[in-house]
Design goal:
alpha+beta; 485 residues; Outer membrane efflux proteins (OEP); two-stranded parallel sheet
């Protein structure tokens, strides 16, 4: 009975230990770690926060074109002091003042984007108290309708209505580009860790092979079949292999910490990466890539926005340096009374019209210089954007060609890796039977290790170029879909 109990106990804890190992070391593909980065990494959270910030900035812009209702006032403005009072004969007497003023107003305003003016509806109420004489009075405008309109002036509302929607659209495209940048960054760290894992595997295998060869060589040396120099060389190779294993373990730990930090993982789980050797095969039309880049990238929208902003500054310089006039007008009802309700009974009409102007007379060329500076800057922006467009198109074409070249390079290095591995196995067997020298075996070992690293490196270059092309075009060529919504 006890043996049976012990058997089940061992089996039970054995299964728990096995499951623990499975959980403690997960297998991850490149797509797995990219998905993790796009849902919980600090880079993802940063991109989300920037997009939210840009959204609220856009909401602030939109609010400029809808009615604004505001309540303002002063309750109270108290004054108990001695003030100079001018007398009818022109003299001044200082008299004590013990008064209070209170006011409140309700204003509804609507800005007009086309003209840059403002129309408003308001209602205001004022109260005056003279505590020395025990007197109080109410006054105000129960209803007032009016407008404020600058003439011949710069109108920022007109330009903001053209620029801000482009800026917000840029931010949405930038958000998608940030996700592809995350994919590129993850791919770089993924292959750094994968290279470290492969290097550790290579180092361990080399250590095992060198240990076996050294032990066989010791027996052959005792029989006088190999010289002491060859045995010492094999012993040195064994020591170097042990050092390589130690260094590979350190590199593995460092690169794994870097990837986990980027992903936002804080557990002690070991990341076992799977080689992404299934290369997607899909045709890439360079003209289609360029067209999608021009349609989707934030830079394409940025070109338009920057030209508008430069043109806006020209308009600002022209509007702020010439004749400026401001027209104000209002009409409505006004009244005054000693009791509050009375102010709203039989009020009088109220009209106000005001036209102000500013005409520069002598400014020693200041206005002309401002306008010419803005115009020169506009031309500079034009030339800069034209050059950036050329560079933009060249970058897209180059990336398409690079991806096609890297796809071929992966196939070549994969074949070279297979050949070098088989060549090393043959060289090792031939050395063990004394057919080749230790030098030939060392060369085969070095070429085998380098071929494996070249293959992993070419894979890393391909996948980074793959995600770079997606970022440049915001287009998924594998599935023929746009990445922007």
């Amino acid at each position: 009975m006890n043996r049976k109990y012990s058997y089940f106990t061992i089996t039970f804890f054995g299964l728990i230990f096995l499951n623990f190992n499975i959980v403690a070391q997960q297998n991850y593909t490149l797509k797995d770690v990219i998905e993790i980065a796009k849902t919980q990494s600090p880079a993802y959270k940063r991109a989300e926060t920037i997009l939210e910030n840009r959204y609220w900035q856009y909401r602030v812009f939109k609010s400029n074109y809808v009615p604004q209702l505001a309540l303002s006032g002063t309750i109270p403005s108290f004054d108990n002091s001695v003030k100079p009072v001018e007398q009818p004969d022109g003299s001044t007497e200082f008299r004590p003042v013990f008064i209070s003023n209170s006011n409140v107003s309700l204003n509804l305003e609507q800005k007009i984007g086309l003209t840059g003016g403002t129309i408003f509806v308001s209602s205001s109420l004022n109260r005056f108290d003279d505590f020395t004489r025990g007197f109080n009075q109410y006054g105000g405008d129960p209803l007032s309708i009016g407008f404020r309109q600058p003439l011949f002036s710069f109108n920022p509302l007109k330009w903001d209505k053209k620029i801000e929607p482009l800026r917000y659209e840029e931010s949405k495209r930038e958000y998608v580009e940030e996700f592809e940048q995350i994919s590129k960054d993850v791919a770089a760290r993924f292959f750094n860790l994968l290279t470290a894992q492969i290097s550790l595997e290579i180092a361990k295998k080399n250590l095992g092979n060198n240990d076996t060869i050294y032990k066989i060589a010791q027996g052959r040396y005792r029989l006088g079949k190999i010289p002491e120099n060859e045995l010492l060389q094999l012993e040195l190779s064994l020591m170097n292999s042990r050092q390589s294993v130690a260094q590979a373990n350190l590199d593995l730990e460092t690169t794994q910490l870097a990837l986990k930090a980027y992903l936002g993982l804080k557990n002690n789980e070991e990341l076992n990466l799977i080689i992404p050797d299934e290369i997607p095969v899909f045709p890439i039309d360079p003209d289609l890539a360029l067209q999608e880049a021009l349609n989707n990238r934030q830079e394409a929208i940025g070109f338009k926005r920057r030209l508008l902003e430069a043109n806006k500054e020209v308009d600002r310089a022209q509007g702020e340096t010439g004749l400026n006039m401001n027209l104000f007008g209002s009409f409505g009802l006004t009244n005054q009374a000693e009791q509050l309700p009375t102010i709203y009974q039989t009020p009088d009409d109220q009209q106000r019209v005001e036209l102000g102007f500013t005409i520069p007379i002598v400014d020693w060329g200041r206005q002309k210089s401002r306008v010419k500076t803005a115009q020169a800057n506009y031309q500079l922006v034009q030339y800069t954007i034209e050059q950036e467009k050329v560079n933009f198109e060249q970058e897209v074409y180059t990336q398409v060609r690079t991806l096609e070249m890297l796809r071929d390079q992966v196939a070549i290095t994969q074949k070279a890796d297979d050949i070098s591995q088989r060549r090393y196995n043959i060289a090792k067997n031939r050395y063990l039977i004394g057919k080749i020298s230790i030098t030939d075996l060392s060369i085969a070992l070095t070429e085998k290790d380098q071929a494996k690293r070249d293959y992993i490196s070419s894979l890393g270059n391909f996948w980074q170029a793959y995600y770079n092309l997606r970022q440049l075009t915001l287009y998924d060529f594998e599935n023929n879909t746009r990445l922007i919504k």
